[in-house]
Amino acid sequence: MNLNSTLFAQLVVFFILAWFTMKFVWPPIVKALDERAKKVADGLAAAERGKHDLELATRRSVEALREGKEKSAELLIQSEKRAAQIIEEAKAQAKIEADRIIAGGKAEAEQESLRARESLRDHVAALAVAGAEKILRREIDARVHAELLSAIKQDL
Fold this sequence. Notes:
mainly alpha, about 160 residues
């Protein structure tokens, strides 16, 4: 065996193997590597988008929380105003009711006072008639008349 022919045969086998590898083995490997690189790139891009979406969601949640706090504070203020308004309305109703009761009491007291005066007038008139009757039944005497008048004064 000659070294040249062996070298030449090995060179031919090497080129055939290289051609076969380049034609049939290398493309699927490159394709698999490209697909893997694309998946990695897509994964990194998705991770970046996820990170961005997370930041946006965080901002939105902070904003929603702030708006919720503002709304709850506003509702609290409105409820306090409404409570104060209800209290004022109740006070006004109570004042009106108290004024009505006081007016009724005053009117009743006035009527009772008028009845008492009328009763007193009737009693005074009866006493005056009784006194006049006593005076007329007795004889006319100044001393007796003075005593009767002083007795009537004491009765009044």
